[in-house]
């Protein structure tokens, strides 16, 4: 262990100094669907070389991360920090209940450490009773539709209320097959699947949009513009809009770019209906997970069962694990230069 720390200290002299106070803030959705996958985002400041140990609540399962230096032991996930400011990892929710995410952090340079404020995530079921009624009731937004000539295309802006916890729907471009007369369409946004509709399987669902109108026969196609919080997904290229027509069908979805904390998308649909925004488990996610697991396979696992908030120095193996991971991270970082 002493030799390990000497190697770490030798590598640390290659890094610039950092004076700001250490802090880590966790961001999670407050409510998720049973079995849903969701992202946990850690925003890190003031830690040049150190680490974080996250403790997942019982029933919640670690799925993946793109972050290269981590190790898993039971419900604990340890991350080595080498000038990192953001870590995102994906967790799968249980079938019900709620749980609190807790964590510890440590800065190895000045030996400071602390606790990350706990975050509670509730799994909201819609099986029966008043809870099911509550989850199915969402505000209905009335959106005026102007007249559209046959063969014409017009853009309709959606109000700011057309948003959920992760997704904001911004506008619709409607191409008319036949003449469209002015009317009002109904727009509803859900964070969980509406009653009577099965959520898409094997996908991380971020939100739903339902459009109710009598224009279906007159519409040739519709382009749906929406944006997703950058903290909610890891791979914008894997986001897809799905259309419900008795079954979920993926639509042609394009990633446009990033603006003001959101990833921006556009999708083309043959008509107006119920939609779901999902992040699929693309190959880039799987290959990244494989590579990160190989990097961390030689690290010493942290010991589970420690009391959350007891201080990073009280987690057995914490320093050794961070030293191993940090040496790996620093070496790889300098190799790239």
UniProtKB/TrEMBL annotation:
InterPro entries cross-referenced by the UniProt entry: PGF_pre_PGF
Region ranges (Disordered): 286-311
Name of the protein in its database record: PGF-pre-PGF domain-containing protein
Protein species of origin: Methermicoccus shengliensis
């Amino acid at each position: 262990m002493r030799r390990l720390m000497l190697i770490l200290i030798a590598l640390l002299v290659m890094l610039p100094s950092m004076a700001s106070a250490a802090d880590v803030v966790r961001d999670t959705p407050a409510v998720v669907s049973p079995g849903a996958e969701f992202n946990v985002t850690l925003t890190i400041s003031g830690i040049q070389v150190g680490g974080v140990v996250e403790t997942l609540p019982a029933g919640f399962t670690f799925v993946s991360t793109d972050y290269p230096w981590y190790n898993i032991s039971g419900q604990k996930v340890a991350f080595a920090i080498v000038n990192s400011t953001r870590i995102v990892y994906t967790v799968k929710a249980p079938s019900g209940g709620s749980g609190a995410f807790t964590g510890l952090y440590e800065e190895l340079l000045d030996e400071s450490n602390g606790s990350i404020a706990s975050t509670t995530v509730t799994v909201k079921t819609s099986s029966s009773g008043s809870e099911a009624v509550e989850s199915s009731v969402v505000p209905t937004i009335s959106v005026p539709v102007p007249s559209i000539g046959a063969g014409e295309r017009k853009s309709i802006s959606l109000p700011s209320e057309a948003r959920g916890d992760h997704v904001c729907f911004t506008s619709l471009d409607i191409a008319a097959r036949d003449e469209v007369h002015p009317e009002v369409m109904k727009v509803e946004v859900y964070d969980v699947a509406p009653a009577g509709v099965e959520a898409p399987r094997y996908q991380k669902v971020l939100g739903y949009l339902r459009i109710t109108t009598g224009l279906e026969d007159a519409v040739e196609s519709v382009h749906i513009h929406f944006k997703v919080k950058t903290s909610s997904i890891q791979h914008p290229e894997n986001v897809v809009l799905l259309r419900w027509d008795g079954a979920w069908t993926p639509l042609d979805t394009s990633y446009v770019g990033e603006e003001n904390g959101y990833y921006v998308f556009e999708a083309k649909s043959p008509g107006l209906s119920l939609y779901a925004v999902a992040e699929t488990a693309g190959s880039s996610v799987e290959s990244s997970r494989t590579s990160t697991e190989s990097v961390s396979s030689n690290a010493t696992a942290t010991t589970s069962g420690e009391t959350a908030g007891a201080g990073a120095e009280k987690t057995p193996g914490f320093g050794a694990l961070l030293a191993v991971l940090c040496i790996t991270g620093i070496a790889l970082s300098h190799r790239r230069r």
